Amino acid sequence: MKVLILGATGMLGHKLIQVLGGRFEAVGTVRGSVAAYQHHPVLGGLSLLGGVQAEDLDSVIRAIATARPQAVINCIGLIKQLPGAKDPLPSLTLNAVFPHRLAQLCQAAGARLVHISTDCVFSGRKGRYTESDPSDAEDLYGRTKFLGEVSGPGRLTLRTSIVGRELGTRSGLFEWFIGQRGRSVNGYARAIYSGFTTQVLADLIADLLEQHPDLEGLWQVSSEPISKYDLLQLLNQALQLGIRVNRDEAFFCDRSLDSTRFRQATGFTPPSWEDMIARLAHDPTPYSQLHS
Asked: Could you tell me the residue ranges of all domains in the chain?
């Protein structure tokens, strides 16, 4: 199977091309020149298409025409941690409009689309959200990601969340935390999370491509809920970071997702957080070369 991964330099995208490259004929897109990645510690030697930007639909059309994929995975999005996330124009373009344009392109090309959404479509006021719960996000990111969720024949939206390593950036929780080695930070005991490490989600997506070719529409995919405090403690121990994590119960946010429907449809059982973090700690990817 040929698989095209849009956004191969992102937190999930780079892990997808690593994982899927071992099971499929996987191609990833990058915004700049492919030559710039020729000697990249992680992406060097992988199959890449350069000059592909969601803002330039013609570049996406060319990528699909070149790769001729049976499946396209959309990992492009403007995350809330980036400075431009408060600007309505790029947020609407990338998070809300582009997935629907991409869905039309995939339909025309006869390719299945897998689109990644987020638990941030919910405010976090109650937790254990199901697919039937209305989106109540109040920020631009959550609202635009909700608008970008696609459904219909050949279109699969996975509403989930990820934590993991990054390629040279420190936008996410884990890279920030690893950068605090030997220091003291607060860990929110009432911030509840039910996502996955990028390794586990990449494996799951590969399994869905192989084993569930007809799965379509919106599906929530989640792990067993864990507090951010406990999650950081696990990471601290697994990577031996020597960080003092102070328990903070002042902040509350529960965006945990109920994925009962998905588990019943696919037979998926999420691994424990202990197993996910242990696997992350033993990931041989040379991230240290990117953050030195």
From this structure: 2-167+196-224+256-271
Beta strand 217-220 with 162-163 is unpaired
Q: CATH: 3.40.50.300, 3.20.20.140, 3.30.360.10, 3.40.50.720. Which one for 2-167+196-224+256-271?
A: 3.40.50.720
Greatest extent of the chain over all pairs of C-alpha atoms, in Å: 53
In the DSSP assignment, the letter for residue 55 is T
pLDDT tens digit sequence for 157-181: 999 999 999 998 888 999 999 999 9
Instruction: Output the pTM of the full model.
Output: 0.97
* 40-75 exposure pattern, b = at least 16 Cβ within 10 A, e = fewer: bebbeebbbbeebbbeeeebbeebbeebebbbbbbb
> Tokens 């809920």 belong to which residue?
225
pLDDT tens, residue by residue, 238-276: 999 999 999 999 999 999 999 999 999 999 999 999 999
Amino acid at 229: Y
Distance of alpha carbon 290 from alpha carbon 292, whole angstroms: 6
Tell me the pairing of strands 184-193 and 226-227: antiparallel
Dig out the tokens for 115 from the structure.
Answer: 């689109």
Q: 133: Cβ–Cβ under 8 A, 6 or more apart, which residues?
A: 122
CB atoms within 10 A of CB 32: 12
DSSP-assigned letter for residue 120? G
Nearest partner of 77 among 111, 58, 102, judged by Cα: 102
How many angstroms separate the CA atoms of 10 and 183, rounded? Answer: 27
Spatial distance between the Cα atoms of 134 and 141, rounded to a whole number of angstroms: 16
CA distance 54 to 99: 9
